[in-house]
Amino acid sequence: MEGGSKRLVVVSNRLPVALSNEGGRWVIKPGGGGLVTALAPVLKNRGGLWIGWSGAKGEVDIVDPLAEFSREAGYSLHPVYLTEEEVAGYYHGFSNEVIWPLFHDFQSRCNFNPTYWRSYLDANLKFAEVVVRFSRDSDYIWVHDYHLMHLAFMLRNMGVPRSCGFFLHIPFPPPDIFLKLPWRAKIVRSLLEYDLVGFQTGRDRSNFISCLRALLPEASISGRGNEVRVTLLGRTSRLGAFPISIDFNAFANMASSGEVAQKTKDFRDALRQRKILLGVDRLDYTKGIPQRIEAIRQLLIKFPDLRERFSFVQLAVPSREEIPEYNALKIEIERLVGEVNGQFAQPGWVPIQYLYRSLPRADLVAYYRAADIALVTPLRDGMNLVAKEYCASNVSETGVLILSEFAGAAGQLQKNGAKLVNPHDVEGVAKVIHKAFHTDIADHRRNMHRLRDSIRKADIFWWVDSFLQNAFSRHLNDFPPLEGVSFHS
């Protein structure tokens, strides 16, 4: 497909929609998740394409529902069809039983099944074929996350010239972990087929460079800051660190709305105006939910003065329920919640309120606004947007962010007032919570104001602009807005 204006083409494992079959009819609704939150506002204002798997197995007739959604969304959606076998090998297998645990420092959970690797390559080829079909030579292809590390390699093997950037949303591990991967050199080489490889943090980029030196010593590495260049076999790629963010104004405005203000009051009234501690996570072993519950237990043991003075609300969003390991984690969390509540509950008070479900956005923001303390304590995380969403929604600027030092957001938010903890040190986490209870409200206001200001300045539009500028020497303004559509950064 030739000619036409410059467009941004986003490629990710999933389309930014949720697909369901209701009475024999496919229904498409807007999806959730950090990537959708990050890019949907940009594509809506700028136009473009989004290519990804629909979530259905096999070829399903969703052309008309997708076209209708595309008209309303302001950008085009193009599905990649995966068979049941490909979903099992590429998605559940290689992506989630190899790369996900390995890159999060859980190598003992990896299943290095050789058939998974072949499925991964086959699926990446399918994605590349859809990119070729719907993109133009002038398009900028922005590929997202660990599911599609081989896409640029596939495009170049097909002889299709495209400018390609890649962003890794999860951490990149150090050599002592990454080198356990049987296909380690092939992964590194495939990433160097992109014009720019973006990481969440400078530490992730440094880990990649260390792995690169170990596996491909013939590669030439030069530069500093976001100008690090790698040259191998006459081809040069750039490596950058771009901490992803959120649409700050969208969260802040919703938190300030009358609807959310009323919901916030209702939540506080239901919990009898006690202090609210809040955890919000997708159900995953990387999020440290069991350790967080143990920290609450330690808080109640070591600081009995806090009993009946707070409620800890843990929201766990269902995830990968078909995987036995995740179901086992759910059972473990429920057991721990029952233990702690059974140990410390009093008439009219239970310490932990556990919600296992997704919440409407307005309810989630109301919980953010109501929470006096947010516990964002993953064992390992690429960035963690919950930390930023909480701060943006804390319009009273009286909240406290307690953040894992192993979250990508730690480097950015520590210097602006977040309280860093080691999530494995449950006694240490309890002490930080106790201190937050007894810190002057003026200190909370100063810290939260600084946190919100830093996130407001480095919001999602800043993230996209900084990536495109580094990848293609292009700003968002180089992608003309759709007629009649305004853009606000």
Write the layout of secondary structure elements.
Layout: E1 8-14, E2 17-22, E3 25-30, H1 34-46, E4 49-57, H2 63-73, E5 76-82, H3 84-103, H4 114-134, E6 140-144, H5 151-157, E7 163-167, H6 175-178, H7 184-191, E8 196-199, H8 202-215, E9 220-222, E10 228-232, E11 235-241, H9 248-255, H10 258-270, E12 275-282, H11 289-302, E13 310-317, H12 324-344, E14 352-356, H13 361-370, E15 373-376, H14 385-393, E16 400-404, H15 410-413, E17 419-421, H16 426-437, H17 441-457, H18 460-472
Helix pairs in contact: 3-4, 4-5, 9-14, 10-13, 11-12, 11-16, 13-14
Describe this structure as you would to a colleague.
This is Alpha,alpha-trehalose-phosphate synthase (UDP-forming). InterPro entries: Glyco_trans_20. Pfam families: Glyco_transf_20 (PF00982). There is one protein chain. The protein is an alpha/beta fold and 489 residues long. The protein has 2 domains: 8-244 and 462-472, Rossmann fold (3-Layer(aba) Sandwich); 248-457, Glycogen Phosphorylase B (Rossmann fold, 3-Layer(aba) Sandwich). The chain is built from 18 helices and 17 strands. The radius of gyration is 23 Å and the shape is globular.
